């Protein structure tokens, strides 16, 4: 069973940047595709970004494309989400998730595609 721990959340002004980390343990990291989701106040959980097992292919929601970058360091069993030009609407709890096996673009945004979830880290963008 994979265990996921997110860190790096915090308070930031609009236009600022944050980098979230997701440390994985308990299974061979490279066996798992990874993703980031978020849940804003009063909203459903939504897909943010996904990465295949190698990190060679990534997927993004339209709302973050061009501002956020997902990456992974398989040697460190860690996934990252670099968030630039943050907006108030990015305020949410951010969750990392893992999926055993491959990740396909057509399914990368589906919550039930992922097997394991972290506890989340809060990101607040305020004026």
| Helical residues, percent | under 10%
Structural class: mainly beta
Low-confidence stretches: none
State the order of secondary-structure elements, H for helix, E for strand.
EEEEEEEEEEE
- % residues in beta strands: over 45%
Q: Using DSSP, what is the number of strands?
A: 11
Q: Return the average pLDDT rounded to an integer.
A: 96
Textual characterization of the structure:
The protein is mainly beta and 127 residues long. It is 0% helix and 48% strand. Strands 2, 4, 5, 6, 9, 10 and 11 form a seven-stranded mixed sheet that branches.
Salient structural properties:
mainly beta, four-stranded antiparallel β-sheet, 0% helix, 48% strand, globular
How is this fold's topology laid out?
Elements (H helix, E strand, L loop, with lengths): L2 E5 L2 E3 L5 E8 L6 E8 L6 E6 L6 E3 L7 E6 L4 E6 L8 E9 L15 E2 L3 E5 L2
Parallel strand pairs: 2-11
Antiparallel strand pairs: 1-3, 3-8, 4-5, 4-9, 5-6, 7-8, 9-10, 9-11
Outline:
The chain is mainly β.
